[in-house]
Each structure stands twice: as C-alpha cells, then as structure tokens.
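Q: A reviewer asked whether we had any structural model of the full assembly, not just the individual parts. We don't, so I'm hoping you can provide one. Inputs are below.
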Amino acid sequence: MALEDFVELKLGHHTQDGIEVVDVEGEIDVYTAPRLRELLIDLVNKNNYNLVVNMERVEFLDSTGLGVLVGGLKRVRAYDGSLDLVCTQERILKIFRITGLTKVFGIHDTVDEAIAARKAEK
Amino acid sequence: MATVEVTFTPLPAHVRTARLVATAVARRSGVAETLLDEVRLAVGEACSRAVEAHRRYCPAEPVRIELTDLGGRFEVVVTDAAPPEAGPDASGFAPAMDTAAVSATNGGPAPFHPVPAETRDGAFPAAFGLAVISGLADDVQVSSTESGLSVRMSWPASPTAG
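A: Here is a predicted structure for the entire assembly that you could use as a starting point for your response.
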C-alpha cells in the first residue's frame, strides 16, 4: 500500500444520551488536525456544547492535535459546556501527561463512562 | 557510523513521511521497540516546527533531517533554514524559551508546566512542540546555526551489525 493511499484520519460523530460523541480514527498531526478543528467548530456552531471525543482508535497525536482539543474545550466552555476524552492508550496518554493536560481534560476509559460522568456533574 | 539524510518540501503532509522514515531507521539502528513511539512523536514535533518556520519565511527551501546510527545511540537532527533574524521570538516561540530550558536529559519529568486554557485556538506556539520533545527524547539540544535552528535529539540504541 502506497503511503498516499493510507487513510490518515477518519472522523465521525453521533448523539448518545444527549451528548455528541466524536469518533476519531488514525493520526492527528499538523496535516490532519485542521479537519478535526473544523468538525468541532461545526458541532459547536450547531449548538452541541457537550462533546465526548473518542480517541480509542487514534494512532498518533502531536501538539497540533492537542491545540485543536484545547481550542474545542475553550469553545464549549464559552457556552458552559464540556469536552471529555476517551482514551486508554498509553502512547497517546503520555503526551497529555507530559504537557499537564491530564488536569485540563476529563479522560475516561469508555464512552459510556465519559457520558455517565458528565451526566453526574449536571 | 551510518547516516540517512532526508530533505523534504515544507508541507504538512510530508511530516508524516518524515516520521515513518525516522521510525524505520531508528528500528534498524537498534532503538528499543518501547522507545519507537517517542522517536516518532519527537521527530514529528521537530519537523512540524520546522515546516511552520519554512512556510512563514522560506517556503522554497527544504527541511533537512539527519538520522545517524552512532553505534550505541540513535541521533536525529532536524535543521530548518529560517533566517537568523526570524529567530525564536519572531517565529512564534515563547519569549522565555532558550536552549537551557529545552535541553534535558531524561530520568525525571520534563521541564514544563501545564498549558493554560487560554492558549490560542488550534495551534500552540512552536516552543510547545520543543517542550514536548524535551519530555520525549533521551537528550535534546536546540541551537542556532548559520543556516537556521537545529534540533538535535538522541536515544539509546543497541549496536547493530550494520
């Protein structure tokens, strides 16, 4: 398979229990992160202020991707909303730890757990 | 000592290719499988920073990477060609960022602080990527050269047959 044939980033979203779940698969880097940013902006513009980003199928995340997630968090917080993450992969969690962002995001093991935690806070 | 050199047009799409090449050469050089993710991320951060600098100041110039098997260490040097006057401050680095702050030998936590939520949307300053690198690479040195900024990082590697 040629490099250019590789699917670098797949994005999808669905509503679950009143919360918009964003499914991300592939690599979030300087090339692909703008697509995730556009999706998050679009969701907020459509009045979705409580988001869960499912990163269980993310294979790579760099600081550009972190910037997009922080940007998304800022946007939803402007509407008293939330942006939680689902991630159990150590290689992805490591960059959150290095940057201290584990204190900024709610990071959960499953989508159901993230939604339950968010509902409990409301 | 075996060296692989890669130059690429400063386009974001090519950063992934650079990561893949770096990871492959690291594996070939004897870097432990458990460290390959760190190599991949650190090289990606360094290349992303260089691509941003080139796109701003010298989009026609290629970004250069050197990957060297030093026989016991694997070294990566990412060099940009941004003009010296476009140094750290002008190219979006945090004003307080200096070589001493970036240089680090692992064994402890990276010299970094949690990111404020008000960080600008969609992109962190370039110094953020360098700070991430300092938390990943076993040894990091950032220096200004005549041709631009050089990010040198290395990891332990088992000597290979060559």
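A: Points you may want to mention in the reply: Chain A touches chain B at residues 3, 8, 27, 29-31, 33-34, 37, 60, 62-64, 66-68, 70-71, 73-75, 77, 91, 94-95, 98-101, 103-104 (CB under 8 Å). The mean pLDDT of chain A is 93.
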